[in-house]
Amino acid sequence: MFLCAVTMSYTVLAGPADVVRVKVTTSGPGVYNFAVTVRHADAGWKHYADAWEVLGPDGTVLGTRELAHPHENEQPFTRSLPGVVIPKEIDKVRLRARDKVHGYGGAEIEVSLPR
Question: Does any domain span residue 4?
Fold first, then answer.
């Protein structure tokens, strides 16, 4: 019983996933590649950072990178998403990360798109 309580407490203490760094490059007109670094106290398969998103100024999801497993021993970690098509009228995007327990809600980063 005690072990279960400690595990549950650790899961709650992990908190939401934070975006801590973003690198954006272009691969063609209106096509962008994102390398996003996420920090989260992954606590196994029940509580880990499981995705990050690229959002337009109005909140429209422009791209999503699903994360298939915990990164308990790799923090922070960086994963890429190539080929995100973004309309030319958008010059800034926001990036946010999600975890399996808290959903979205950690630190986000807004970046200007290279032209």
Answer: no
CATH no. for residue 39? 2.60.40.730
Q: How far is Cα of residue 4 from the mean position of the Cα atoms in its chain? A: 28
Whether pTM exceeds 0.90: no
Closest Cα to residue 18, out of 52, 54, 63, 66?
52
Integer-rounded Cα Rg, in Å, for the chain is: 16
Separation in Å, CA 111 to CA 11, 21, 86: 30, 10, 13
Residue by residue, pLDDT tens for the chain (115 residues) are: 333 333 333 344 568 999 999 999 999 999 999 999 999 988 888 888 999 999 999 999 999 999 999 887 788 999 999 999 999 999 999 999 999 999 999 999 999 999 8
Does 12 map to a domain?
no
53, 61 contact by CB (below 8 A): yes
Distance from the first to the final alpha carbon of the chain: 57
